[in-house]
Design goal:
Domain Thioredoxin: 36-155
Number of helices: 15
Number of domains: 3
CATH class of the largest domain: Alpha Beta
CATH topology of the largest domain: Glutaredoxin
Shape: globular
GO biological process, one term: response to stress
InterPro entries: Thioredoxin-like_sf (IPR036249), Thioredoxin_CS (IPR017937), Thioredoxin_domain (IPR013766), TPR-like_helical_dom_sf (IPR011990)
Protein name: Thioredoxin
CATH superfamily of the largest domain: Glutaredoxin
Number of strands: 5
Oligomer: single chain
Pfam families: Thioredoxin (PF00085), TPR_19 (PF14559), TPR_20 (PF14561)
Helix content: 55-70%
Radius of gyration: 22 Å
């Protein structure tokens, strides 16, 4: 799914504040002190991904962010997009070799942290740099765009804050890279789908996901990927201003409301998209109503059936229908 808030405007603003200079000075002092004592101990690749809770947040995230950018992945076991994004972030944390630290926060067990960061939906990804928090993106996203965001993050962290990251044990890193991971039966097709998404080939991604589902109709990653790729394909050629004006001017036009709901969801406005279509179901009947209902069910697949926003929207849909 197209990432939401996939921009580093927060980092750019952060670079201008006084904290940047102070953090850079502190980082330089920390490195100098470590050098006098024989240098900072190298960490293993496995130490680049940590589970964090409310009790250890100050130590594991805030304090660590004075040495390395900390990327926070807010997730939950019931969240299907989280199961797609989480392993990708973990792999990138090892690949970036200490340039950022990945902290994983289970929102079900850490509701206070979720509230403090103002999170409305997951997966949600934030960063903390020199004690300063900023949003990166929300929702699963193509790997190429995630890499672009991480590259910008580590660049700003080094240039503005002097944070060069953690030293990783070279021998341990080599061992981690050489460890063989058995390929799953659909890994090649799923990799092809991701590559197509990264290249902007939405039709190719759709076909790759359909190839998986033709053999395994219940494959969760392929179902999620297909729903997201189809959504992106639908909104790719839309003119957002025209679509939204058409929907506002024609509240009973089913196609206008469906198109606007697609834009809402692609832009991260999940509840707006669901609410728009539920309201349209209430105003329509017959084939029009069924068309809206079918599209709403497709949008549920983009987010994942276990997301609480989907659960609430299903209940609203049932009420509107019956």
């Amino acid at each position: 799914m197209q990432p939401r808030n996939m921009s580093m405007s927060g980092v750019v603003d952060l670079a201008a504040v006084k904290a940047a200079g102070e953090a850079k000075t502190k980082a330089e002092q920390t490195r100098a002190e470590a050098a006098r004592h024989g240098g900072t101990p190298a960490v293993t690749p496995s130490a680049l991904v940590i589970d964090v809770d409310e009790a250890g947040f100050e130590r594991d995230v805030i304090q660590q962010s004075a040495e390395v950018p900390v990327v926070i992945d807010f997730w939950a076991e019931w969240c299907e997009p989280c199961k797609q994004l989480g392993p990708l972030l973990e792999r990138l944390a090892v690949e970036y070799n200490g340039r950022f630290l990945l902290a994983k926060v289970d929102v079900d067990a850490n509701q206070m942290l979720m509230q403090q960061f103002g999170i409305q939906g997951i997966p949600a990804v934030f960063a903390v740099v020199a004690g300063q928090a900023l949003p990166l993106f929300q929702g699963a996203a193509p790997e190429a765009q995630i890499r672009q965001t991480l590259d910008q993050l580590v660049q700003v962290a080094e240039e503005r804050f002097g944070l060069t990251g953690l030293q990783v044990d070279a021998d341990a890193a080599a061992g981690a890279e050489s460890a063989a991971v058995p390929a799953g039966p659909y890994d090649a097709l799923l990799d092809a789908a991701v590559s197509a998404l990264d290249a902007g080939d939405l039709s190719g991604a759709v076909q790759a996901y359909r190839n998986v589902l033709a053999d395994d109709p219940g494959h969760p990653e392929a179902k999620l990927g297909l729903a997201q790729a189809e959504l992106l394909a639908r909104v790719q050629e839309m003119n957002p201003g025209e679509v939204r004006k058409n929907a506002a001017d024609n509240p009973t036009d089913v196609e206008a409301q469906i198109a606007a709901a697609d834009l809402d969801l692609a832009g991260g406005h999940v509840q707006d998209a669901f609410g728009r279509l539920v309201d349209t179901v209430r105003r329509t009947a017959g084939e029009d109503r069924d068309a809206v209902r079918v599209r709403l069910l497709k949008l549920f697949e983009v987010i994942g059936s276990e997301d609480p926003r989907v659960t609430a929207a299903r209940q609203a849909l049932a009420s509107a229908l019956f």
